[in-house]
Amino acid sequence: MKRFVLSRRWRILLSIVAVLQFAACDSVTVEKYHYNGIIATASPIATDIGLNILRDGGNAVDAAVAVGCALAVCYPEAGNIGGGGFALIYDADLGNITALDFRETAPASASRKMYLDSRGEVIASSSLLGAGAAGVPGTVAGLFEMWKKYGSMDWYRLLEPAIKLADTGFILDAYLTNKFAEYAKDLSIFPETKKVFFKNGAVLGQGDRLVQTDLAMTLERIGLDGLDGFYSGTTADMIVQSMQNNGGLISYEDLAGYRPLWREPVHFTFDSLDVYSMPPPSSGGVILGEILKILEPFNFIKYTPSHPEYMHIFAEACRLAYADRAVHLGDPDFTVNPVLELLDPQYLESRRALINLQSTANSSEIGSGLPEKSVVESESTTHFCIADKSGNVVSLTYTINASFGSKLVVDSAGFLLNNEMDDFSIKPGVPNMYGLIGGKANEIEPGKRMLSSMSPTIVMNGDRPLLALGAPGGSKIITTVAQAIINFTRFGMNLQKVVEHPRFHHQWLPDTLYLEVGGFDINIKQDLISRGHLIKEREPYSDLQIIYIGSNRLMMGASDPRKDGKTAGY
Ligand code: GLY
């Protein structure tokens, strides 16, 4: 007994030393830590559901399935079964990381010019609103595939909490109330959607209970029949009917033919750490790698996280990396992605050499592009990370693209469809809703996956996971994740500071350095302007979820205070 007490003390002491080592420059608050499991998600309800699965003996993948389904119920702006995403999974037994691609695909009858009119102009909102904007959903197939390979609990058991939650409903919190109010007009466009989110003609508000009986029945079919509960039978009938009623393209064959794909993660080193992130069809891993590798040789001793020279070189690295994104990246099954070339040290050296410490490059000289598209930008993707007591880790980002996706609920099936087709380059050179432009590599083709920025990431310290992290934010996902890694490793912030710290973003085009409003003082802004940056302040963005796993399995995590997520463990 005495021996045990002594060794546990040592365990804690050593773990704290490990934390301090990574938080050396900060006024460290040693955060709440756990040894058996940890979850960080955008929703307290989903976090609690996942934690119960871990407590009941489920592993990180079991919990991820339960969380993924729960978010589809309690976080409808982004949680989904009608969208798609990506997961990175660390298998503690094998000591390896795999990447699962369950991104949506273009329907078989999709075509390159489907969103253009006879004059070749983009038809307003056609890639954003309603059935015609939807790609073939991948989430259910993705969660099922993860579970088939790694899950340990009964499939139905994992869906049960979400089924119950949809059936009995839950009282809207302030966050969801505000979201519904913000999107009330869009959510009233389709009667199928109004049926779910409105009561007596008004969108649900604070104190209202959101009951989703149709969604409960769809989840029940998936729970009982697995893939067939979604990709064929009753649910498929409902999806195809919805397409026919609303001018969409998804067919029975598209649904039956959908396959998630295991892919090799993008891997690069940053300082002494190994970073693994999502490969194409997400641009996340490659662009994250370019940004971090371009910055790696700079001497950070003279910098703080809001030092204008650091912000300047970060922005310049982003300008160079995002210029590559627009040209080179797309679905690897349709286009050659020069991943190794983009992360080649000599190439990165040549890109780094373009950075002038005193002044900005001009985006139009690095590449060409059009002005920012004037649409309301949304960034409703969501990320969660989970670690279990055996050391397995899941880092998963999934989405229906815009907040509430295409705004169309599949009638009688109760779930929102994505509007992911907008992530294709619908007309080369024309920006999508994130202001990103693209070229041939990301053109629409039947069965193709649209380019993404989602960046579920796992950082390894030697042979053990150190961090799992990710975020929503469209194009801003990558800079959010890059800044989190730098803030933790180079600036020694603790996790809470990492999620809180003000963010800034540059994506080559538009040639603008975005700063979170209130995050940077006038001297910083003036310095950046004097270096040639065009600055725009914008509302706080993204919703970083991050977990840390120390030596001896000490686990900590943090959820972004910009939204209402929750980290919990046991
Ligand atoms: N729909 C946002 C992304 O995939 O990056």
Task: Please count the beta strands (DSSP E, at least 2 residues each).
Answer: 20
Q: Averaging pLDDT over every residue, what do you get? A: 92
Q: If you compute it from the alpha carbons, what radius of gyration comes out, rounded to the nearest whole angstrom?
A: 23 Å
Main structural class: alpha+beta
Kindly report how far apart the N and C termini lie. Answer: 22 Å
Oligomer kind: single chain
Characterize the biggest β-sheet: 7 strands, antiparallel
The hetero molecules present are:
glycine
The 3D shape can be described as globular
With strands numbered from the N-terminus, the spatial order across the biggest sheet is 8-3-2-12-11-1-20
Please work out how many helical segments DSSP would assign. 20
* Share of β-strand residues: 15-25%
Helix content: 25-40%
- Number of structurally distinct domains: 2
As residue ranges, the low-confidence spans are: 1-30, 367-377
